[in-house]
Design a protein that fits this description.
There is one protein chain. With 218 residues, the protein is an alpha/beta fold. The protein has one domain: Rossmann fold (3-Layer(aba) Sandwich). It contains seven helices and ten strands. The strands form two sheets. A six-stranded mixed β-sheet has the order 5-4-3-6-7-8, with helices on both faces. Strands 9-2-1-10 form a four-stranded mixed β-sheet. Helix 4 links the parallel strand 3 and strand 4. Helix 3 packs across helix 4. The radius of gyration is 18 Å and the shape is globular. It binds zinc ion (ZN). The site of zinc ion has 7 residues, from helix 6.
Length: 218
């Protein structure tokens, strides 16, 4: 259980994190067609907020904070979403940072990356929805002999349905509504549908960044 003071602090962070996500177009509101075919009123693309190195560093400091006492030796993120974040969290914790990538469909360590027996591991991910990739990295790290001390994620989209069996800290929780195309409330309201990655969406993101001046420093 976390202390009340820590909880208050993480709620403070949540506001700041949400505003960074909105400023950089990483969190968009509208009517989107997801790659699954489902429709949604919000869309998250963490790579956009992480494209500002100052923001990536700031977010990583928030992620690292609850694990400062854990003496983490190595931070691992699943590719692609976890790569930039694990690098920055590694910096914040004074730990090594590596990533796992798919080889024949299985998340593995390549490029000579290694975990030494007994090393204390923190798994880092941008967005947790089903938790599949994180669970895979935890299993792999344990098989390599690592001691997994926790999971840190930017966004928890699991709606409380995920348990990794280790401490898990997330900066924000988002309960994004998704609809099957035939039963979409946004379609009913005739809100224009945007396809992910479309030119329209890129223009929208640019517009948000321009409006909010995301390149300003803290
Ligand atoms: Zn729709």
């Amino acid at each position: 259980m976390r202390k009340e003071s820590e909880r208050k602090e993480s709620r403070g962070n949540e506001k700041e994190v949400l505003s960074l996500l909105r400023e950089t177009g990483a969190l968009l509101k509208g009517h989107f067609k997801l790659s699954s075919g489902l429709h949604s009123s919000e869309y998250v693309q963490c790579a956009l907020v992480l494209s500002f190195p100052d923001y990536a560093e700031k977010l990583a400091e928030f992620l690292a904070k609850p694990f400062k006492e854990e003496k983490i030796d190595i931070v691992i993120g699943p590719a692609m979403g976890g790569i930039v974040l694990s690098q920055e969290v590694g910096r914040a914790l004074g730990a090594r940072a590596i990533f796992a990538e798919r080889e024949e469909g299985i998340l593995s360590l390549r490029r000579g990356f290694k975990i030494q027996e007994g090393e204390r591991v923190l798994v880092v991910e941008d967005v947790v929805t089903t938790g599949g990739s994180v669970r895979e990295v935890i299993r792999m790290a344990k098989e390599e002999g690592g001691a997994v001390k926790g999971v840190a994620s930017l966004i928890d989209r699991s709606s409380g349905k995920v348990d990794f069996g280790v401490r898990w800290e997330s900066l924000v929780s988002l309960d994004l509504k998704v609809y099957p195309p035939g039963r979409c409330l946004l379609c009913k309201e005739k809100i224009p549908l945007k396809k992910l990655g479309s030119r329209e969406m890129i223009e929208d993101a640019k517009e948000q960044v321009g409006k909010n001046g995301a390149s300003k420093n803290f």
